[in-house]
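Incident log entry.

Two folding requests arrived from the same account within the same minute. Monitoring flagged them as a possible duplicate submission, but the sequences differ. Recording both here for audit purposes.

Request one:
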Amino acid sequence: MSAVKNVIKDNYNMMLLKDYLRESIKEAGFSHVEISKTPTGTRVVLHVTRPGIVIGRKGTGIRELTEKLEKSFGLKSPQIAVNEITQPELTASVMCNRLAQLIERGTAFRRATMWTLQQIMNAGAMGVQITVSGKLRGDRSSFEKHSLGVLPRAGHSASIIVDEDTAPIPTPMGYIGVRIRIARKERYIPEFELKGKKETKEERELRIAREESERIARTESEQVKLDQEKIEQMDIIDDPEEKLK
């Protein structure tokens, strides 16, 4: 087999593996996977928001996943490591999945988009852009783009600062696509200077107390359900025509 065919085959197998992981460990908040070959086998690093779900009770989840990767995807002696994502709101793939689940559950796409924008910016992002496209309100396809903060659009700085991901959403009218681009402050290039109001000690204590008082979700579905309850309390007009009523 030629080198080109080997590359195509490896990329195709990687795509199938990512699709499988995205569905099988969705409740763990799967973000991405890193695969590297070692002298003793294949090292697989899973980046998730809730490692306990992947590991399972007494490691049963890891053992089942190891057998699946070895038999179905041909990985030799896979050694799985689980890496926890400490700030899921700043990870584009995680927020894409949450936004997709919100829309699938029946939340208006504009409400879900505004909620996701607020969650990302409150987590400390430098900027965010969310694009929703498809048959949003009728038979004709359209798109909406919402942005907050500072977001580099092109060039070397954008490739370093911006984290981007997309997700398809099946609906009765057809598929809706969402794309989220997040600019992270800790990645900005030194020649950019970020100016803003610093958080005081009292504000930090109040924020921590508020975060601790909130309910902690055990799975991604529970997190999306909590978000949906909060979205329903938001005062947002979904359709501009409602303003004229």
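Request two (distinct sequence, not a duplicate):
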Amino acid sequence: MGTKKIKRGRRNKVQTGPRKSQQPTTRQGRRVIKERYLLQRELGKGGMGKTFLAQDTHFGDQCVVKIVTGDSQLIQREARRLCYLKHEGIPAYRDFILESSQNREDEAFLVQEYIRGKTLKQYAKDQGGRIPLPRALSVMRQALEVLEYLHNRKEQDTQEKAPVLHLDIKPENMILRESDHHLFLIDFGLSAQAHISLFIQQGLTPSIQGYSPGYSPYEQTQGRVVPASDIYALGMTMLVLLTGKDVREVRMLLDQNTLFQDPKVNIPTNVTRLLQRMVTLRVEDRIQSAEETLRQMQSLRLTPSWTRRFLLWGLPLLLVLLGLFFWLR
């Protein structure tokens, strides 16, 4: 079996060389990758493959192993780019293993840091289906900071701009760390990234096969992606988390201009205006960058909900009572 590996950090040493073709190694009925990563349970699956919680038997800690499908050479090249990503909101990439065999389809394994916590989908469910506005704004700000880093990424050698797009932002792919509720973006669209790189190198428009219905903008479903595509997905994610509605219902109500008329939604006007600019269907009319979105967030003047209620009901009632007091005197 021929094996190629991409390594980073102190945990791994670069090893190359041919390996004999063999069946996957197992231990107590569970698969072991590279005689090191013991798969424990499936965490999820998508268009690019399956993700497993695993144990690194060399160091004894837990990690995440993503079994990637697609063109192995393209995925290997794109995995090299992802292995160099360093941001406090991205799980660290620990290892990449590419196995080829004459007897079965090539397989690629991407190994990442395991973040102990809850996805925003799980967190919202625990909160009754929606999350409080302060938490949502904190999540949004942290996500935008990660996107700002990704969209302005530069090549290590040439320092030329080489943006990385996430391409699959949704509540399931955002984790709040258990210890401090710090946000992490997970499950990058690696297969899609590989195709983007190939098409850009050939001077063609990128062709994307996979996307998440409802969260992915129209241009992505048509095989065209730009940084504003991630902005759209983040905006839809925030609306789902703030309203507790299904993403398709959110889009339908947006198109009908009725989403924010629902009294149960109760999102401040300045926040709704920003979110509406993020989820505009025409990419040309949308906020174009994470930097611009962050600037818009910083300009928001948010009034606590109890203050809004007081100004709406309490202050008029207080004025009436004061008027009666002076009149009766």
